[in-house]
Amino acid sequence: MTKTFSLFASVLALGVVAALPAQADGVKTFELTIKDHKFQPERLVVPAGEDFVVVVKNEDDTPEEFESHDLHREKVINGHSTGKVRLGGLKPGEYAFVGEFHEDTAKGVIVAE
User: Fold this and answer.
1) Residue 6: is its pLDDT beyond 70?
2) E strand or H helix at 81, and its extent?
3) Per-residue 3-state assignment (H helix, E strand, C coil) for 27-75
4) What predicted TM-score, i.e. pTM, was given to this entire model?
5) Residue 40: Cβ-neighbour burial (10 angstroms; 0-12, 13-18, 19+)
6) What is the largest CA-CA distance in the chain?
7) Are 112 and 88 in contact (CB under 8 A)?
8) Alpha carbon of 49 to those of 75, 89, 93, 111, 112: distances in Å?
9) Containing H/E element for 17?
């Protein structure tokens, strides 16, 4: 019974940790993955009014550019590489982004709440 409860508690804790954003140097970090020229997740919910970092992991063989006209940001991430985009102080709302090299499939939105 104790082993079953401990295993259940461990699995539950891992699930909670996986759902929360990471935090480094007091700044929350959110992850986006580019795979098959698509962003995952396509919808990223962040806290309004707070600084945060979006870590973009490109799992494709080719480079991609994270670009957002709404956020005035662009960052090229080489294939099989990771890039960071620091953002913050967003007013509540939705901010579109695309992968400029594959705009037809690589689309997403950052939602500040």
Assistant:
1) no
2) strand 81-87
3) EEEEEEEEECCEEECCEEEECCCCCEEEEEEECCCCCEEEEECCCCEEE
4) 0.77
5) middle
6) 55
7) no
8) 22, 4, 11, 12, 8
9) helix 2-19
H or E element that contains 11: helix 2-19
72 pLDDT higher than 60: yes
* Residue partners of 47: CB distance under 8 A and separation at least 6: 28, 112, 113
CA–centroid distance for 12 within its chain:
22
Q: How far apart are alpha carbons 90 and 35 in whole angstroms? A: 27
pLDDT digits (tens, 9 = 90+) for 13-55: 444 444 456 766 679 999 999 999 999 999 999 999 999 999 9
Q: What backbone torsions phi and psi does residue 82 show, to the nearest 5 degrees?
A: -130, 140
User: What b/e string do you get for 1-31 counting C-beta neighbours within 10 Å, with b at 16 or more?
Assistant: eeeeeeeeeeeeeeeeeeeebeeeeeebebe
Per-residue CA distances from 102 to 63, 66, 68, 77 (Å):
10, 10, 13, 13
CA–CA distance, 98 with 94 (Å, rounded to integer): 13
Q: How far apart are CA 51 and CA 101, in angstroms?
A: 27
